[in-house]
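Troubleshooting: if your tokenizer reports a length mismatch, compare your output against this known-good record of 203 residues.
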Amino acid sequence: MADGYDAIETDKQWMKDFGCCRIVEEKAANEKMRPDWKQLLMTLERGDVLVLSKISNALRRVRELSVFLELCRIKVVRIISIHDKLDSKDEVFPTLSTEAMLNIIGGLPSEVAVLRKNNTHVERLQQVKSKTKATKSRQEREMTIVNMYNGGHSIDDIWHISGFRSRSSVFRILNKHGITLNRGPHSGPIRKKGESKNESNEE
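Known-good structure output:
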């Protein structure tokens, strides 16, 4: 199974109820290499039962389908596809008609294209969410530095709490937010590198 598939939770429950001992859920980030799916195929043993949500959710092209079916034939693996209503032993679902089977094979490319589009969309949403979270975290750290300085904490205390590698990063944040240093060895506005104290006072 993969990200962006709407019926994933329902299918997982179907598989559990059927008695599946292992459920593979490939992530969208692994779409190109699909390591979990490949590992699953390698671990198939003679007489196993392989349950799929849908043929197009597991295989990406007709040639891949051909190789997959040959592997299952050699290892005598029973194939069940929930949404295709397919059971190679014709027990869970009734015998699939020739027309229905041809439709599954013929529709594979278009269904895979839709799935890939959904996976790409999910991946982009996750990237946006990650960037938003990072931005929010950075803003919160900066406000913590400003609030601590305004609350009377020393630069060293703020530095240790901030997580920055150098004290200069603390000064950079204070300067960014227009904070005027007013205690300890530091006073007045934060000067740019190379700017003298007199030059700063003349402004």
